[in-house]
Write a structure and sequence with these properties.
single chain, 274 residues, alpha/beta, six-stranded mixed beta sheet, four-stranded antiparallel beta sheet, 38% helix, globular, binds adenosine-5'-diphosphate
């Protein structure tokens, strides 16, 4: 069943001004429950605008976003609830940490959901576990943590709201290669255990190839491709024409998959090339 769909979705910035720009142009797509979708496209192709319409931060200029079959703007007063169901992790989310302790920060979302204190704490602790934050982190100040740890606290804060759809915008940006691989495997693990839908926006074709079941390619505000990861990366020449650099690794991985070989979702480049 589709968890989230768009129908002729269009979003235009600055309508009625000389700076008018249609950032999402007539996009109709359907994402199934439990899918792991990769979202790629060159800078300015409309990725960020698209994901913000999916969780109701931006209201479509025309067309619809349907969550479990229902137009999210049908009852504008309920749009806040949509933002819990479609959780969004922005780029560099650690800039939004503000509570005294890690546990309080992770609990912030669930505390706004009308749950009991016990339920809030359970959700927060579980979310911390998903991102590999052990018990001894929970009472620390988020400001004592390393960059990668802060990032994980911020992601846990969204996971704690138990969203049906989790959208992550460049979650590994700025992390060192080890931190990146670790976070990515935690996201894959979370997705496997929770079984919800994940949409991962990334510049890293490698990260997308390792994780996604299907890949959506945005080009110049339009949906250029939406197909299995293998099928999309098999069209490497077209991707390169859209300004996307497809490193050798993705070609190798698509070959592996094509051959029906099991591909470890957290396979490192070195392992894949060897
Ligand atoms: P991406 O996330 O793929 O880089 P964006 O959705 O951020 O793409 O941007 C798509 C287009 O919309 C770009 O041309 C960008 O300049 C424009 N745009 C984005 N945000 C705004 C804004 N707040 N006002 C006007 N134009 C914007």
């Amino acid at each position: 069943m589709a968890v989230i769909e768009t129908k002729n979705l269009t979003y235009t910035y600055g309508e009625g001004t000389p700076f008018v720009k249609t950032a999402v142009d007539n996009v109709s797509l359907s994402i199934e429950e439990g899918e792991f979708v990769g979202l790629i496209g060159h800078t300015g192709s409309g990725k960020s605008t698209l994901i913000q319409t999916l969780n109701g931060l931006l209201k479509p200029t025309s067309g619809q976003v349907l969550l479990k079959g229902k137009d999210i703007w049908e009852e504008p007063k309920k749009i806040r609830a949509v933002r819990f169901q479609v959780g969004m992790v922005f780029q560099y989310p650690e800039h939004q940490l503000f509570e005294e302790t890690v546990l309080k920060d992770i609990s912030f979302g669930p505390r706004n959901m009308g749950l009991s204190d016990q339920e809030i704490e359970e959700k927060a602790r579980q979310a911390a576990q998903f991102v590999g934050l052990t018990e001894d982190f929970l009472e620390k100040s988020p400001f004592e943590l390393s960059g990668g740890e802060k990032r994980r606290v911020a992601i846990a804060g969204v996971i704690a709201m138990d969203p049906d759809v989790l959208i992550l915008d460049e979650p590994t940006a700025g992390l060192d290669p080890r931190g990146r691989d670790k976070l990515l495997s935690q996201i894959v693990d979370y997705h496997k255990k929770r079984g919800n839908t994940v949409i991962l926006v990334s510049h890293s074709m490698e990260d997308i190839a390792k994780t996604a079941d299907r890949v959506l390619v945005m080009d110049d505000s339009r949906e250029a491709m939406f197909d299995s990861t293998r099928a999309v990366f098999a069209r490497g020449d077209e991707l390169e024409q859209m300004g996307l650099r497809v490193p050798q690794i993705t070609k190798i991985m698509s070959v592996l998959k094509e051959k029906g070989w099991p591909v470890d979702p957290v396979l490192t480049v070195e392992q894949a090339v060897r």
